[in-house]
Amino acid sequence: MTPYQMLLLPGDGIGPEVMAEAERLIGWVNDRGIARIETESDLVGGCAYDAHGEAISDATMARALAVDAVMLGAVGGPKWDGVAYDQRPEAGLLRLRKDLELFANLRPAICYPALADASALKRDRVEGLDIMIVRELTGGVYFGEPKTIVDLGNGQKRAVDTQVYETYEIERIASVAFELARKRKNLVHSAEKRNVMKTGVLWHEVVTKLHRERYSDVKLEHILADNCAMQLVRWPKQFDVIVTDNLFGDMLSDEAAMATGSLGMLPSASLGAADAAARRRALYEPVHGSAPYIAGKGIANPIATIASFAMCLRYSFDLAAAADQIEAAIARVLDQGLRTADISQDGCRTVSTREMGDAIVAALDTD
Ligand code: NAD
After folding, report:
1. Ligand 1 nearest-atom number relative to CA 286
2. Is 142 a residue of the active site?
3. 113 within a domain of the structure (yes/no)
4. Distance between CA atoms of 93 and 85, rounded to whole angstroms?
5. How many CB atoms lie within 10 A of CB 275?
6. In degrees rounded to 5, what are phi and psi of residue 40?
7. For a pocket test of ligand 1, which of 49, 88, 263 has the largest count of ligand atoms closer than 8 A to its C-beta?
């Protein structure tokens, strides 16, 4: 069995606590002979700054570029508030995304039935919800030039951000969405604002052409991004995969997240281009941050990180069955009424980070 190589970057705050639980799932994969995963750990964020004076060292970056997948906990915290902008903990994460050329951000919004009452929406809207937002991550208005604030000299200033997309950027993100949809419910919604934006016109044109030429077996719907935001609240279960640009994706994925209950439940994957062997660079991380005020208390919810590892099994190692098993184990533990403090509910038992990890591993073994 050729071993997979993973780099673990637990980071700051609750990062090491939640990563420790994901490592137990890596151990389960190895112990059951499902695959051989070899791991090494390194520093990123504030802890890397403390050790090396930078949020990620060149040596750590070289390791990240060499492995099959990287898993990150979280970075940042008030301890590093005074650090120079270029060395702040988040700079380590941004460098990882940039140097690994991770252009596709996948954020699933899954509502476990046991948590449906914790959602901001009514139970019937969200129970069993399973959608995937595919956000373009390296282009668009966050990076386009010019990006300036100009003093007009008359007491006024002019701020400019530039929304730019080229054909290849739209093609590669839409391909990721179509490929994902084929393994799900075979439906893609492409969200843009072609009614008012030239980038929306090009987005629509490129997605339509790509669909006609390579993915006509997948059902494609075009939707204006503002309508998509409304529909996500009205009836989110109509969606399977939503593909959209960097700015709209930032907002739509946060909106969809609210359907699921808690930040501590949300995993993510960021993928790069496929190489000749169809392998992609990849970074897996929970959506939440370092939650410094609960760090060290043993109460953080490890589910987002464990579910991020399940995404790694599915998208980097092609081990969908093992990913399914982990996700089913999470659902089973929630059904049993176990909750970390962030998702606590009347009539349920509140457990620690470690106890939640124990319960998920135990639920796997009773599968
Ligand atoms: P946060 O996600 O750390 O916390 C927001 C709220 O959610 C807090 O109340 C926190 O206690 C709770 N929470 C988050 N994750 C949880 C978990 N797993 N279990 C239980 N409760 C959880 O966001 P924030 O407070 O805005 O930021 C804190 C620090 O994290 C800042 O330094 C910020 O820059 C950084 N941050 C890092 C990342 C990242 O590493 N990807 C993302 C967001 C924020």
Report:
1. 41
2. yes
3. no
4. 13
5. 9
6. -135, 150
7. 263
CATH of the domain at 348: 3.40.718.10
Are 92 and 78 spatial neighbours (Cβ–Cβ below 8 Å)? no
- Any idea what the Cα angle at residue 49 is, between residues 46 and 52, rounded to 5°? 150
Residue 150 covered by a domain? yes
* Residue 224 belongs to domain spanning: 120-260
Alpha-carbon span 106 to 312, nearest angstrom: 11
Three-state SS string over 64-75 comes to HHHCCEEEEEEC
The phi and psi torsions of 59 (rounded to 5 degrees) equal -65, -40
Beta-ladder partners of 8: 41, 71
Q: Which residues pair with 254 in a beta bridge?
A: none
Q: Give the integer Cα–Cα distance in Å for 297 and 72.
A: 20
Where a domain ends, among 205, 236, 260? 260
Q: Can you give the pLDDT of all 367 residues of the chain as single tens digits? A: 789 999 999 999 999 999 999 999 999 999 999 999 999 999 999 999 999 999 999 999 999 999 999 999 999 999 999 999 889 999 999 899 889 999 999 999 999 888 888 888 999 999 989 999 999 999 999 889 999 999 999 999 999 999 999 999 999 999 999 999 999 999 999 999 999 999 999 999 999 999 999 999 999 999 999 999 999 999 999 999 999 999 999 999 988 888 887 788 899 999 998 888 878 899 999 999 999 999 999 999 999 999 999 999 999 999 999 999 999 999 999 999 999 999 888 899 999 999 999 999 999 977 5
φ, ψ dihedrals at 69, nearest 5°: -160, 150
- What is the 8-class DSSP label of residue 34? S
Centre of ligand 1 to C-alpha 49, Å, is 19
- Token pair 């998509």 is found at 228
Secondary structure (3-state) at 306: helix
Asked whether the beta carbons of 133 and 177 are under 8 A apart, the reply is no
Please tell me whether the overall predicted TM-score, pTM, comes out greater than 0.85 for this model: yes
Judge if 98 and 213 occupy the same domain: no
In order, the DSSP letters of 174-190 are: HHHHHHHHHTTTSEEEE
Question: Which residue's CA is the closest to the ligand 1 atom numbered 23?
Answer: 289
Q: Is the Cβ atom of 288 under 6 angstroms away from ligand 1?
A: yes
Q: Are 56 and 68 in contact (CB under 8 A)?
A: no
